[in-house]
Amino acid sequence: MKVIFLTLARISSVEKRGNYQDLVRKIRDEGHDIIVVSPAERKYREGTSLTHEGRASILKVWTPNIQKANLLEKIIGTMSIEYLYLRAISRYFPKISLDLILYSTPPITLLGLISRLKNKTKAFTYLLLKDIFPQNAIDLRLMSETSLIYKYFRKREEDLYKISDWIGCMSMANVDYVLRNNKWVAPDKIEINPNSVEISDLIPSIKTDDGISQLLVGKIVMVYGGNLGKPQGINFLFEVVTACADIENVLFLIIGSGTETQKVVNWIRESDPPNALFIHEMPNDEYSNLLSLCHVGLIFLHPDFTIPNYPSRILPYLQNKLPVLCATDSITDIGSDAEDNEYGFHCQSGDVVKYKKYVRLLAQSEELRDRLGGNGFEYLKMNFNVDYSYKVIMDHFKNGE
């Protein structure tokens, strides 16, 4: 098959580990030709370029900054990316032939490009739905439901669902949400197909000779890694760090970047919590290695969400056999999944008392951490395996749909 994958995620090589890279690599290694179209944002000082890795081609397209950028540049970049992608594809693949167009959230501004490729090639279309936009912006009060910009994006969202032959959702709660709020979507075109990774039974070797490792020695490390933005409800993270300061040997390790990074930096500087350490974002391999020194993985979500977010940060936690502790809204099922399948605990964001109880429980029992972590790894293999995700997509063609 001939496949194109359109994404706003930065992909420079399919050989590196990552949610999308693992899936692309799986598609390539199964004998298909795949083109990856990914942004080369202005901040990286790269131009548009095309590289090849076997049957995978990576087309990096110069764009304004769109990830972790200020609001104005993010809007400009998001609005212009469709034209920039189309121009680059037309230049490097003027006679493009496709069987499948694969694209990941947020693809609303790529709607016109997807439509043109679909009409030109008669390919099938598959949406990997990771975030539900623009409703998430409404929940965070970034736009009004009566505004013209919301109505514009909502119409684009509806059109995207209509043009997609299949929609893969992160969880059952996401499937139910989409069907409940878009009653015209046929139930047989929507399915569970979450973020997935290539599973490895090998946990990265532990380095003990660097400065960071030495700071973690003798501590029960509760790690939060990933985006630091409004969706994460960072204020509750501050609350629990403060509340848990009297729990012996517990260290909250915060790793990441985002729109709220400066807020985190300022809080660390002003509060000087004895049980917290902040590290700016780091390469995936270094992050994976550091996780091998940690004991519990943390999930935070803003309490006002009405959409069921399912953060991908849970995957490296499960890969490293860490139990997870989730503080979320009441809509998502990431916390109930953890509890129902016995690989973690869950409480409502804002419930400091319950959260602290779970921190103390996990800190005091190595046996509990090992048992939950082992359960999580088994759940990862059954539900977030890239082999599963690949099969879900390709079964549509196998069955002649």
Please state the CA-atom Rg, rounded to the nearest Å. Answer: 21 Å
Question: Roughly how much helix do the residues carry, as a percent range?
Answer: 40-55%
CATH topology of the largest domain: Rossmann fold
Question: Could you name the CATH class of the largest domain?
Answer: Alpha Beta
Query: What do the pLDDT scores average to?
Result: 88
DSSP summary, beta strand count = 14
Helical element count?
15
Largest sheet: 8 strands, mixed
The sequence of SSEs as H and E is EHEEEHEHEHHEHEHEHEHEHEHEHEHHH
In spatial order, strands of the major sheet run: 3-4-2-1-5-6-7-8
Q: How does this structure look, described?
A:
The protein has two domains: 2-198 and 385-398, Glycogen Phosphorylase B (Rossmann fold, 3-Layer(aba) Sandwich); 211-383, Glycogen Phosphorylase B (Rossmann fold). The protein has 401 residues and is an alpha/beta fold. It contains 15 helices and 14 strands. Helix 8 (234-243) links the parallel strand 9 (220-227) and strand 10 (250-257). The model has no long low-confidence stretch (mean pLDDT 88).
List keywords for this structure.
eight-stranded mixed beta sheet; Rossmann fold; 401 residues; 2 domains; alpha/beta; 42% helix; globular
List the helices and strands and how they pair.
Blueprint: E1 2-6, H1 19-29, E2 33-41, E3 49-53, E4 56-63, H2 71-92, E5 100-104, H3 111-121, E6 124-129, H4 135-139, H5 148-163, E7 166-169, H6 172-181, E8 190-192, H7 211-216, E9 220-227, H8 234-243, E10 250-257, H9 261-271, E11 276-280, H10 284-291, E12 296-300, H11 314-319, E13 324-328, H12 334-340, E14 344-348, H13 352-364, H14 366-383, H15 386-398
Parallel strand pairs: 1-2, 1-5, 2-4, 5-6, 6-7, 7-8, 9-10, 9-12, 10-11, 12-13, 13-14
Antiparallel strand pairs: 3-4
Helix pairs in contact: 1-15
